[in-house]
Amino acid sequence: MGVTDVTQPLSGRTALVTGGSRGIGLGTASVLAARGATVTVTGRKPDALAAAEATIREAAPDADVRTIVANTGSADDRRAAVELAARDRGTVDILVNNTGINPVYGPLMDADLDAVRKIFDVNVVAALGYLQECHRAGMGRTGGAVVNIASTAGLRSTRVIAAYGASKAALIRLTAELAAELGPGIRVNAIAPNIVKTQFAEALYSADEEGVASRFPLKRLGTPADVAELVAFLVDDERSGWISGETITLDGGLLAGG
Fold first, then answer.
1. Residue of 136, 145, 156 lying closest to 178 (CA atoms)
2. Phi, psi (5° rounding) for residue 69?
3. Residue 4: is its pLDDT beyond 50?
4. At the top level of its lineage, which domain of life is listed (predicted)?
5. Are 131 and 80 in contact (CB under 8 A)?
6. What is the pLDDT of residue 209?
7. pLDDT given at position 1
8. Topology of 14-251 in CATH?
9. What is the per-residue pLDDT across 178-214, written as a single tens digit (0 to 9) for each?
10. In whole angstroms, how far apart are CA 71 and each of 79, 199, 242?
11. Which of 191, 209, 227, 247 has its CA 20 to 30 A from that of 171?
12. Percent share of the chain, pLDDT over 90
């Protein structure tokens, strides 16, 4: 039996990170690449993807990094992204469903239902769609690890981003169902972060970051690196090979206070 390279425990594995041109996705792609994985990143804007690739290569100069313009809500784009990720090895070993949208704020009684449908289509249905494509492209035969990026909004009401929270609750439930269905070959877990310092969450903290951070027992907001390191742990079979169907709360201790 060979000795695992502790500095690159994901060497030889292929990873697909959706919505990886910034924020949590970019942080995750950088960490996975630094640990030896071949990483494919999706995003909607070519310029942002080019900048993301440069950032990932700073973290992992010798990494095999691929980018593709893809709309997560498009079945054709999902298929093309998976084909690119699986191109060399004939499979995707790691899938990180990171893409999420939230165009609806405020009371659900005032919510535009078309916008709500779009939230669920991108945040839930497309996550399943990506896994179906990966399963067909080789993961169903060779196995793998999946991490869905959920949210603490899926665990308790925010009263502000209710439709988004409901979609993340569905993603958490989907995670458990998939873990039960796909074991033992494929492990499926989720991470539920609270406020992470990204452009996506900026409206939740930018007006008073210090005040918002003071509500957390650890007295700071999360960072993309916090999430990325947990993703890297969950996809590493040597360290987390008996974890599946779990949603891990990553919130600086906030929900511990009730």
1. 145
2. -75, 120
3. yes
4. Bacteria
5. no
6. 86
7. 41
8. Rossmann fold (3.40.50)
9. 999 999 999 999 999 998 998 887 877 878 889 989 9
10. 11, 19, 33
11. 209
12. 88
Structure tokens at 234: 């969950």
Q: What tokens appear for 58 in the block? A: 């700073």
Distances (CA, A) of 10 to 7, 84, 131: 9, 18, 20
Distances (CA, A) of 63 to 93, 111, 170, 195: 16, 44, 34, 30
Among the residues of the chain, which ranges form H helices? 23-34, 46-59, 75-85, 113-120, 126-134, 140-142, 162-182, 209-213, 224-234, 237-240
Domains in the chain: boundaries: 14-251
- If residue 149 lies in a helix (H) or strand (E), which one and from where to where? strand 144-149
Catalytic residue ranges: 164
Strands (E), 60-110: 65-69, 94-97
Residue 206 amino acid letter = S
- CA distances 140 to 37, 128, 166, 173, 179, Å, are 19, 14, 29, 21, 13
Q: Average pLDDT for residues 105-131, to the nearest whole number?
A: 96
pLDDT of residue 200: 82
Please choose, from the candidates 168, 140, 137, the residue with its C-alpha nearest in 3D space to the C-alpha of residue 155.
Answer: 168
Say how far apart CA 115 and CA 124 lie, in whole Å.
14
Tokens at 184, concatenated: 């033992």
